[in-house]
């Protein structure tokens, strides 16, 4: 999917385009990275038991 509007981009694409060619805003980029990681971290923490159970079951041979 191609989006040309600046305010409808995915946060990771916005993060990649935020860095300038010559000037890097490391503080703001790290804050944006943390914000983009939070939803994935919340999902992992909610389903942590199922993730670990799935990983352990793949290592067990019957």
From TrEMBL:
InterPro entries for the chain: MetI-like_sf (IPR035906)
Keyword Transport: yes
Keywords, in A-Z order: Cell membrane, Membrane, Transmembrane, Transmembrane helix, Transport
Subcellular location: Cell membrane
Chief site of localization: membrane
SUPFAM superfamilies documented for this protein: MetI-like
Residues spanning the membrane: 25-47
Bilayer topology: Multi-pass membrane protein
Any GO CC annotation of this UniProt entry: plasma membrane
Listed name of the protein: ABC transmembrane type-1 domain-containing protein
Organism: marine sediment metagenome
